[in-house]
Amino acid sequence: MILRYALRRLAYSALVLIGVLVVVFVVVDQIGDPARLMLPPNAPESVYLALRESLGLDDPLWERFVRSVGGWLHGDFGDSTWQGVPALQLVLERLPATLLLAAIALAVSLTGALVLGLASARRPGSLVDRLLTVISLAGVSIAEFWLGLMLILFFAVQLRWLPTSGFNGLQYAILPAIALSFRPLGRISQIARSSLVEEMRKPYIKALRAKGLTENRILRRSALKNAGIPIVTLAGDELASFLNGAVVIEVIFAWPGIGSLFIQAIERRDLPLIEACVFAVSVMVIAVNFAVDLIYARLDPRAVVYKS
Question: What are phi and psi of 115, to 5 degrees?
């Protein structure tokens, strides 16, 4: 049944990817004439017409769509008009930096959120619980770009402990990862705390207490697993946002990831590179959502029946 469920979710993911391809094609088609964007303003009309013909822009819309999608599925987005190399090659060169930053930020936020959530759920309403609630609310409230600038000012400029920008080792990832993980840490810790507190009030927890199990063991072994679905849901959502929306942090810290490349492509109206960036991010987000669905099935087999 789990295999059937996985195949069904994979089919849904493929449909979503096709929808993304359609949206990307329509949006790019409406941005403007690609031939005009690729040529300088004073280019002769004959050069413009020849370029349109070579790009197939005079063909019917449906024919251009089929040709474009066929190229995308084979990894062919054309050459970047900015750098003159295959657009997908530029994206793949930036992909490891984006994945590294997202992985570190997710590890920091998820670990910190579970620690805060477990500590709060162990003694709800206590001073520790209130203090941790304030910390989680601060994480939700503080803007990422402001936090990133403050981290640079304090740790890089004043203390000179860490580099300000770029990427040349793991020490360069510390500040952007902290700035990126602070908001999800607040969100996940709130969900973890509320889910665990609710779980600790259920009858089976009282039965475990009657058997003599300690609160820490009950929290870690039983309550955390049963409260894991909302935590996994939000963690997957945050990971997708790391891959999709870390543009501001990458720009502030000059991080050589897909986000900063996407901004540069927009500034230069590099349509093939824009398409390659959107496609790559879409595939990663769909893969994250598919992985979350599989984790659902592992944590709660009832989800297989419900979602199928």
Answer: -65, -45
CA–CA distances in Å: residue 245 to residues 93, 172, 294? 18, 19, 24
Report d(CA 205, CA 70) in Å as an integer: 55
Measured distance CA(226)–CA(215) in Å, rounded: 15
Query: Among 208, 215, 203, 237, which Cα is nearest to 118's?
Result: 215
Half-sphere exposure of 30 (CA within 13 A, CB side): 6
**299 vs 308: CA distance, rounded Å:** 16
Q: What is the CATH number of domain 88-307?
A: 1.10.3720.10
Residues of the chain predicted below pLDDT 70: 1-2, 31-32, 244-245, 300-308
> Which residues, in sequence order, are CB contacts of 136 under 8 Å at separation 6+?
113, 116, 185, 186, 187, 189, 190, 193
Distance CA 6, CA 74 (A): 24
The pLDDT tens digits of the residues spanning 86-135 come to: 888 999 999 888 888 888 988 998 888 888 888 887 877 788 788 888 87
Is residue 305 exposed (0-12), middle (13-18) or buried (19+ Cβ within 10 Å)?
Answer: exposed
